[in-house]
Design a protein that fits this description.
The complex is a heterotrimer of chains A (about 140), B (about 375) and C (about 160). Chain B is an alpha+beta fold and about 375 residues long. Chain B is built from 16 helices and 8 strands. In chain B, helix 3 packs antiparallel against helix 4. Chain B is globular and about 85 Å long. Chain C is about 25% helix and about 25% strand.
């Protein structure tokens, strides 16, 4: 199901099914949304889902550039698969690779790439998932 | 006869002009066929660390992503946080924010220009630019108390008021810089050696620039007049008179000229700010009222934090912000679950967006053009890796 | 390129080189923005965020400084019955948040940032050491003054 929401800051938010992401991207590209600002994945372990959020905007149409369009979609934690958008928006190249590294999302339909930010031999839980914990300290010595 | 084949050449990561990154170039003789940057050597997982810190503690953390450009990173984060908290800074604080942001833009561009000069063999430009950062760093230090890591912009305002004599000192520094820009022009910017190294090198045309999504001066050097300060003006930019510096060539020299033009624009903006900065409070009343009266009305010109700052709790929700940092559009996205720590913090820095330019601008160029193009992109590895 | 254009290009190049050289030579004789650190120290001004000092007599042990410290440098240490902040300079980033949040002004910053230690242990200060004045070296100091022609010039003070 697709939902369109007007967010607080005059931005638009579209929620789509993960299987429709490529179609949606093509559609938006034709509306002159020509580049991706960010790809964010947020982990919700209790609900067994990872939200993948794309923020897109335009350079060619400076009126449209005033909007940041948000595309939200959800994948499961066990099978975090979604189609790559690199063919639609080449500017997504490194953003997708970063998300693969740090959140373990598989962007299908593009050739397998070496790790970008993490060491080549890194193994284990993707570090941005909530199940990867880091040590914190209290205020006492 | 041996079979002809291409060579994979590794440049870096041990910093011979590669920065903290490794560049993999596929070479056919002297010509680059394919170029792949390999980053992450200074990745510090800022987004993960942020999830364990309180909202105010993240201010120094976001600055560490880009030490030459801390004011703009500080500002971008605080704008997102203020949207979550639903608070605005008083007008005087907004002027002070932009004052620091533009001082920072000048010394950040000088930093980039100096490194660029050094990369193509003009050590004079390196020494001059780094020397001339000093008056601006000194100005910022008098305002904030630190040379680079300002942590000056806080939710609801700024930490310190303008010191006495700041206006006169700043005006002197600005006229000095204008004088120096003419010197730069003769010794570096229009030096025949610089022209020969940079003109027509590393061209990104207008269509490609939009397609691959480069940002900041690199985008504007390719003919696209996109500047967040005009597109989605924040703080007091609507009240300032300035131009977006655009050039059409898209080559390494155009990127250099755009930065010079932006220094000139920043000089003009700082003059306007100093001329019309209004009197008033520098912290929102909502926070000022929480500060104990004993320390509140002191003669010193700095604000006291309310105790609340050790554990700010924005309501549940999300906020985005974008600002024009020195290297381009900086994007922050905050998700709050109503606790004292962000649930998710996303930061997309301009250098990370500009990384893709390496893959495109260097194709078909000569090996010796790598430093010339690298320097012109003003790429800062710690900012990209975060 | 026609021979005539080439000659014009060369001439242009020559003028450019001459201008660059002239500009460089002019600056040989101009004074530099330099401080002979560490023989001479730069005065950092009254607002500088340097090394910290605790005034243990007015500290109310509210723990706010330790709570806001972004780098876990300030920790509450037990002295007799109460807890007071101690600091480790291995971690301190001189953001000054602790000074600004202290409700009774028990923390203050000094204009010094260049203390040196022989061991790492010396950089961890217990509350009683934290209450002593930071080491300020007795060396000639210069104050930077802004100048339209020279950027900054340094005057001894």
């Amino acid at each position: 199901m697709t939902r369109v929401l007007l967010t607080k800051q005059n931005g638009l938010s579209i929620t789509v099914d993960a299987s429709k992401i490529l179609e949606t991207a093509h559609l938006l590209k034709n509306l002159k949304f020509d580049h991706v600002i960010s790809v964010t994945a947020t982990d919700y372990p209790e609900e067994n889902r990872i939200d993948v959020i794309y923020h897109v905007s335009s350079f060619e149409d400076l009126e449209l550039a005033k909007t940041i369009l948000e595309i939200r979609t959800t994948v499961s934690r066990q099978e975090p698969n979604i189609h790559t958008l690199v063919a639609v928006w080449p500017s997504i190249e490194f953003l997708e690779r970063e998300t693969t590294d740090l959140m373990g999302i598989n962007f299908g339909g593009r050739e397998a790439m070496a790790r970008l930010l993490l060491p080549e031999d890194f193994e284990g839980e993707p570090p941005l998932r909530k199940s990867y914990t880091i040590r914190t300290e209290g205020i006492d010595a | 006869m041996s079979e002809e084949q291409t060579l994979e050449l590794l440049i870096g990561p041990q910093h011979p002009g590669s920065g903290h990154m490794r560049l993999v170039a596929e070479m056919d003789g002297d010509v680059i066929l394919n170029f792949e940057p390999n980053i992450g050597y200074v990745h510090r997982a800022v987004e993960k660390i942020a999830e364990t810190k309180t909202y105010v503690q993240i201010i120094p953390l976001v600055e560490r992503t880009s030490l030459p450009d801390t004011a703009n990173h500080n500002l971008g984060y605080v704008l997102a946080l203020e949207r979550l908290l639903g608070i605005d800074a008083p007008l005087r604080a907004q002027y002070l924010r932009i004052l620091l942001a533009e001082i920072n833009r000048i010394h950040s561009h000088l930093y980039g220009m100096g490194i660029h000069g050094n990369m193509i063999g003009s050590t004079t430009m390196l020494m001059w630019a780094f020397g001339d950062r000093e008056p601006f760093i000194e100005l910022a230090q008098r305002l904030t108390g630190a040379r680079l890591s300002y942590s000056y912009i806080i939710p609801g305002g700024v930490r310190r008021d303008l010191p006495q004599d700041f206006r006169n000192d700043a005006l002197k520094a600005l006229s000095y810089m204008e004088r120096r820009l003419k010197d730069y022009d003769r010794i570096f910017v229009h030096n025949p050696v610089t022209l020969a190294r940079l003109k027509g090198v590393g061209v990104i045309n207008r269509i490609d620039a939009a397609r691959i999504g480069v940002v900041g001066p690199n985008l504007r050097a390719s003919g696209i007049a996109y500047d967040v300060r005009k597109i989605e003006p924040y703080c007091i930019y609507p009240d300032l008179d300035f131009e977006v510096v655009v050039r059409d060539e898209g080559d390494a020299h155009a990127r250099l000229l755009v930065r010079i033009g932006e220094i000139e624009q920043s000089i003009s903006m700082i003059r306007q700010i100093l001329g019309k900065i209004p009197d008033g409070s520098i912290l929102a009343d909502r926070y000022l009222d929480l500060v104990p009266s004993r320390t509140r009305f002191e003669k010193r010109s700095s604000v006291k934090f309310p105790a609340l700052f050790s554990g700010l709790k924005p309501s549940k929700g999300e906020a985005v912000s974008r600002v024009e940092a020195s290297r381009g559009e900086l994007f922050h996205y905050l998700v709050s679950d109503g606790s004292t720590h962000p649930y998710r913090f996303r930061i997309v820095t301009p250098s990370f967006k500009n990384l893709i330019a390496f893959k495109h601008a260097l194709l078909g160029q000569k090996l010796a053009d790598i430093p010339a193009v690298y320097g012109s992109l003003d790429y800062f590895p710690p900012e990209a890796d975060r | 390129m026609k021979p005539k254009d080439r000659r014009a290009g060369k001439l242009l190049g020559l003028t450019g080189h001459m201008q660059a050289i002239r500009s460089g030579i002019e600056h040989i004789f101009k004074p530099r923005m330099t401080v002979l650190y560490p023989e001479v120290l730069q005065d950092l001004g009254p607002n500088y965020r340097g090394m910290l000092k605790l005034r243990i007599d007015i500290c109310i042990s509210c723990t706010l400084c330790a709570r806001i410290c972004p780098s876990n440098a300030l920790k509450m240490v037990k002295v007799d019955v109460r807890k007071y902040p101690g600091i480790t300079y291995q971690r301190c980033i001189f953001c000054g948040f602790c000074v600004d949040i202290c409700p009774v002004d028990a923390l203050e910053m000094s204009g010094s940032h260049d203390a040196a230690c022989y061991t790492l242990g010396e950089q961890v200060l217990k509350p009683e050491d934290f209450s002593k004045d930071p080491v300020i070296e007795d060396k000639p100091r210069v104050k930077p003054l802004f100048d339209e022609k020279r950027g900054l010039r340094y005057e001894s003070c």
